[in-house]
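We emphasize that the prediction below concerns an isolated chain of 92 residues; any contacts that depend on oligomerization or on bound cofactors are therefore not represented. The input was used exactly as deposited, without trimming of termini.
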Amino acid sequence: MKVTVLKRQTLSDIALQVYGDISGLPGIARANGLAMTAELAVGQVLQCPDVVFDAYLQNYVRKYGIKPATAYDGEGEIRQRIFTEEFTLEFT
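Result of the prediction step, given as a token string:
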């Protein structure tokens, strides 16, 4: 199966989208010659091995078109830091 990468998708997201389970992550990475933590490009086409890890979850994500996109791209209001620029020595 081939999957086209959407904005903010990681290999973990693709594994969830295709298999309903991140167990497929290593196989997708291997099939595409990528590291499991590789950054993906929007529109990149990935080959996903034809395997089943959990038939119920796989059918569910496909039936409802679930397409997670969890990578932080620097846009939006979500911040990936615990402390802001106002962090001072009082906290140490």
